[in-house]
Design brief:
With 338 residues, this protein is of the alpha/beta class. The chain has two domains: 116 residues, NAD(P)-binding Rossmann-like Domain (Rossmann fold); 173 residues, Dihydrodipicolinate Reductase, domain 2. The chain is 30% helix and 25% strand. A hairpin with a 4-residue loop joins strand 12 and strand 13. The protein starts with 5 loop residues before the first strand and ends in a 6-residue tail after the last strand.
């Protein structure tokens, strides 16, 4: 057993490497360890010279990790989480909770028994403009809401241009790729801003433009019990990246531009004000804030911001959208059970 406190990361992809770097920033005197999600032997070139490489979760458990971050492909999330939680190790699970409710159900009992030790890494909730946007919505700054629209898209080959995008997780069904899982941040923040939805109608398709085996574009209509509707568009195709949420209210229109970290209020045809703007915002800050918060969850001094039920809410919505896309029918989200 190491005499140092140990923090564990499972996975070695881009998000895992970000977490490894951030753990070293926040806990400079601690040991940061890593395990390959696939079981392959990692090297210092993969995860950094000063990262301790473990051969298995069992090996890492011998060092009694303070907590673990699960940054593996989505199909592996809940299995790893159950193994760690059964040994009392708190887990921060990268989004989404899992690739399917069926896979979650295989480990449901363990995860539910330790739900106070689980956080889902929907990091947008920690972004400065997101917090301001939610405060504006909670304050009814545009009055009663008439409609909501979400648009998120970026050309998949541009995400990580140094690698073959067709080999990355986002492009491969067996690794939990596709628009619905990869862009589920949008589905999480919609629940955070506006509560649960009653029905979903979704068209998801593979256009054939990217040589992948996952859906590359999604259009959906989500409706609350009070008939408030959200139009959602998500894709891997747009050459000019976009990520916006527009809320049309009786007294104005709010537009949250995530890529530019701005919030704009339109109150008339030629009247608009920028309510929030921070072009210099370092996007790594939200990841650091997430880790700071989860460290408090792990020590038992804070509750999860996005706990197990929040992760399940997003996953139920994904399952409802999948079912709708497969059947061509409106789906009652409440009928989707884990």
């Amino acid at each position: 057993m190491s005499g140092q406190p140990t923090y564990l990361v499972i996975g070695s992809g881009s998000i895992a490497k970000r977490h490894i770097g951030n753990l070293k920033k926040l806990f400079a005197s601690a040991r940061v360890g890593c395990i390959s999600a696939s079981g392959r032997r990692l090297s210092a070139e993969d995860v950094g010279e000063d990262t301790h490489i473990y051969g298995s979760i069992d090996d890492a458990l011998a060092d009694d990790p303070v907590f673990a971050i699960i940054a593996s492909p989505a199909p592996l999330h809940v299995g790893c989480a159950a193994q760690l939680l059964s040994q009392k190790v708190p887990v921060l699970i990268e989004k989404p909770l899992s690739d399917s409710l069926e896979r979650f159900s295989d480990h449901r009992d363990v995860l539910l028994a330790h739900k106070e030790r689980i956080e889902i890494a929907y990091n947008l909730r920690f972004m400065s403009s997101a917090l301001r946007f939610k405060a504006l919505l909670d304050a009814r700054s545009v009055g009663g809401i008439s409609s909501i629209s979400v648009d998120v898209g970026q050309y998949l080959p541009d995400w990580r241009p140094a690698s073959d995008y067709r080999k990355n997780v986002s492009a491969r069904r067996e690794l939990g790729g596709g628009v619905l899982l990869e862009l589920s941040h949008e589905l999480d923040y919609l629940g955070w801003f506006f509560g649960e939805f009653k029905t979903a109608y979704c068209v998801a398709r593979n256009t054939g433009a990217l040589e992948v085996d996952v859906e590359d574009t999604v259009d959906a209509l989500l409706v609350r019990t009070d008939r408030l509707a959200v139009n959602v568009h998500m894709d891997f195709l747009q050459r000019a990246p976009v990520r916006t949420c527009k809320v049309v209210g009786q007294e104005g229109t709010l537009i949250w531009d995530i890529l530019n970290n701005t919030i704009t209020l339109h109150s008339g045809r030629d009247e608009h004000r920028v309510l929030f703007e921070d072009a210099s915002y370092d996007r790594n800050t939200m990841y650091l804030d997430l880790l700071r918060h989860f460290a408090r969850v792990a020590e038992g001094t804070a509750l999860p911001e996005i706990g197990l039920e929040g992760g399940l809410q997003a996953l139920r919505l994904i399952e409802a959208m999948r079912t709708s896309a497969a059947t061509g029918q409106v789906v009652n989200i409440g009928d989707i059970q884990a």
